[in-house]
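pipeline/complex-builder :: batch 7 item 3
reading input block
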Amino acid sequence: MIVRSVALRHGRHAIASNFLSRRFLASQVDSIEAAAENSIKQLQSLETQLNSGVPIPEPSAEPDLFSRSSTVAEQYQLFKQQQKLTQTLGSDISAHYKPHTLLSNPPSPADVTLELLLAAEAHQGHATSLWNPANARYIHGVRQGIHIISLDVTAAHLRRASKVVQEVSKRGGIVLFVGTRDGQDTAVVRAAQLAKGYHLFERWIPGSITNGQQILGKCATKVMNEKDEVVPGFDEQLYERPVLKPDLVVCVNPMENYVLLHECALNNIPTIGVIDTNADPTWVTYPIPANDDSLRCIQVIAGVLGRAGEAGQKQRLELAEKGQITYRPAQGLVAPGEDDLTTASPEVNQEIREKVFHDTESIVDADELSDKIDADANHEGDGRRIRVTS
Amino acid sequence: MARGELSRSLRQALEALRSFSRPQCHRIARYPPRSFRSSTTRCMSTSVPRRAELVDETPEKFAAAPPIDFAQEDGKGSGNGAGAGKPVGKKTLRTLRVVPASPSYFSAKPTFTDDFINLCALLRKVATLPTVPPSEAPKVAWKTVDQYRIMTNEPVKTQRFHKMIHILRRLNCIHPSLIPDEVVQAMQRYKKPNQPGDIKPNPGVIDELGRAKGVGQRKTSSAVAWVVEGEGEVLVNGKSLAQFFGRLHDRESAVWALKATQRLDKYNVWALTTGGGVTGQAEALTLAVAKALLVHEPALKPALRRAGCITRDPRKVERKKPGHVKARKMPTWVKR
């Protein structure tokens, strides 16, 4: 095989121009030229070798790297070692879009910029003939036959929604993230994971709120304290308790979840939704005008709301460490194993009074304090007894 | 002049078309022009519309819940836990809240949804490990959808369960020498308690005198045969082959395993048969001799299978049924 003298004819200029056409720092130019010289020399040596017919010694890294005698496990281990050595080689392309980072490390509300929303195609609405005029305030204009959503409006609404999610999470509310289209499941699950909330990526079963006992009656619940520790011993009581409803619903595809949003409206549950130009903004309490057809946009929005929930949960736990409880405790729970308690002993009464006085919860006035003492003394444990109110 | 005539005739033709009443035009005219509002309330999502959405074209109007008043929430909620409702006794009870046990609570199938999510996450984690082709992967009997429903007590859809099994099959294809422990532990939950290959039959033994035993049955006959290396002598119930089986076909079928593999002169057979008739006993012997021969030479299995000596013939005399004269024969049909 005779290799034409490509290097001689074109080499120097071609390689040099290829390198120098990219933008590099001035300090790197000298090294690039040196590299170009080296590669030309290598090419020339290869040419002479091939033309002379001398067998080129093959570079042998490991003698038994791909031989049949070594097992698959050994080969895989060698492959991983090689990979570790070589993966840092090559050019370093920094600050480029890596799709998986939107799920593994979503942006927080403070990281929301118009550039981020634009890159996520949040501005792309539907064809102008399909619009809902109620969305006129969110639309910037028309381009190529589609409505363009104002990204500053989107950013403002997204910040508002993230504040809502944060505050609800801080108050220990149940936040449900819903996204039923193909490809939205990972975003929704990740958001729920961050916000310690709940997710739904399959079809919403109609009646899960309005007819909850039938549909969700068999699903397990648990009792937690302010530090998110599970408190055991309430299984029997939980069996008789009513089914739980979400305190806030975040829906990333409201067009397909009309029934869910209707049920939330009937039960006075506030909702957040990604409203496209053809969607009805009155279906949700806190609309976020954005493109609901773009998975990247949904991942950004769900990620931001998940991060907001995470911040809220962190705040709640910090307050819990100090002894402050930000939520309304469950009513009607009885201490497990104390159903047969009839009258409290005086020592127990004294204990209760001490606990009441050392309570860090805010007590407004003396009346409340006396009520509290009476309550603790009279109604310890047994909820079945008829109370005599003064 | 010709042009004028042409244009006139064209005009006439157009007028004729206009006057000609076409039913399609009337049909279109009958429907009023679609109002702007009604077209926008129709669901125009890009995902495949389901039947319910297409039928219900104008959904009922509703207004979403009002925005949350956090100041009011603060006043009601934190601090004094004992509100207007039932007071709680102890301090710890005042800190408790009831929450769903699983993040998939609102799917109505929390266990299945959690299982599915965990398996997907596991697959994403180990996706780059080397795999074997599915035919070479270890044979696993996965739980059926009914067994899974009983296990979880949830209304799991069959299609979604099969998607989960698809993921499990892919996890099973990871090379056995590299499969991580957590994958093995995760897969165990979805396997049937009894797997094929759990029960291994004891391999046949050749005793100190060089004999291998084989047992066979056919109809109500059963036979036991001891096969040992020798010259080709056969004894059945103490008699020679020709003495015991009067029929040539039966004589051949008794030692068919040896005949098909051309080993008639290499082994001696000593057999005992009971039950049934002559041919049944001969066929039972076929199976018995084949099994004993397999102990000596296991590599002959494909050859014996092709010869038809391996499968136990399951046919037996069918029972008589009420209303029939025999198993199938019915009494003569009478018109009246």
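note: Chain B has three domains: 9-95, 110-188, 212-306.
queue -> next item
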